[in-house]
Design a protein that fits this description.
Layout (H helix, E strand, L loop, with lengths): L2 H15 L1 E3 H8 L3 H13 L4 E3 L2 E3 L17 H12 L7 E4 L3 H11 L11 E5 L2 H7 L5 E5 L3 E3 L4 E3 L1 H7 L4 E7 L2 E3 L3 E4 L2 H12 L1 E7 L11 E4 L6 E4 L5 H9 L3 E4 L1
């Protein structure tokens, strides 16, 4: 197992359990305790965890795993969701994409659509996510609009008043939200309040709003609300979502697509 793969696995275990012992982690990953100690020390230097005697703990209850370490979580579900979301976008439309692993997959699904291979432009993409802009910038048929702002390292998103200035001047057909939580009562939410503010403005500038979220995000709440549930037109999720959860969203007037 490579170091990057090992770090990803360690961080995911840590987020799931809150605390890891060296011996426990070594047994899980089938490596030596010395290797785990070294990994913990190096991750602590990057402020990715807090080192303890004999192990490590997360940085408090609201810990957010940086985007580069989240790509493997529910990967197949996210790819199916992304393909379905991309299918909701018509050629020539202006689409807003927030940051996140699922919306990054949406960008990739849009990039390979044969009916978007040409056009002037085939699609206008507005995003505050640097990684999404970077991936799509090589597609000459796409017009890429980046909001501006200050980069947030955890999610590669641009936040702050500079982004507000751009979004206040445009309108878009559809906003695609990546969220950490989506609940009928508490709405769509993110970990960070500045990120949530930009995502909220993107929703306000859109004709329709789509939440792209795997079932693990549903029925949960997070610190910073993006928008109320009634502001969302469509939820695209995976088939692991319970019938009761789907029913509650539908009763709130949200069209639910499961893939």
């Amino acid at each position: 197992m490579s170091r990057d793969a090992r770090w990803k696995a360690l961080l995911e275990l840590l987020v799931e359990r809150g605390r890891l012992d060296v011996e426990e982690a070594a047994a899980e990953l089938e490596v030596s305790a010395a290797t785990i100690r070294r990994d913990f020390d190096q991750l602590a230097e990057q402020q990715m965890l807090v080192r303890t005697r004999g192990g490590a703990v997360v940085h408090g209850v609201s810990y957010e795993l940086p985007l580069r370490y989240k790509t493997a979580r529910n990967a197949s579900e996210k790819q199916r969701i992304a393909k379905a979301v991309a299918g909701l976008v018509a050629p020539g439309e202006a689409v807003g994409l927030t940051g996140g692993t699922t919306t990054t997959e949406v960008a990739r699904a849009l990039a390979v659509r044969s009916d978007l291979a040409s056009g002037s432009p085939a699609l206008t993409v507005v995003t505050n996510a640097l990684n999404i802009a970077n991936e799509l910038a090589v597609r000459p048929q796409f017009k890429i609009v980046v909001t501006g702002g200050v980069a947030r390292p955890q999610s590669y998103e641009l936040i702050g008043p500079l982004a507000d200035g751009v979004l206040g001047q445009i309108t878009i057909d559809v906003a695609v939200l990546g969220v950490v939580a989506f609940d009928v009562t508490h709405g769509a939410a993110a970990h960070d309040e500045a990120e949530a503010a930009i995502n909220r403005l993107l929703c306000e500038r859109a004709e329709r709003v789509v939440v792209a979220a795997d079932s693990s995000k549903l029925g949960r709440r997070a610190f910073a609300r993006i928008c109320a549930a009634e502001s969302v037109d469509i939820l695209v999720t995976d088939t692991a979502a319970s019938a009761d959860t789907i029913r509650r969203f539908e009763e709130a007037g949200i069209a639910v697509v499961t893939v």
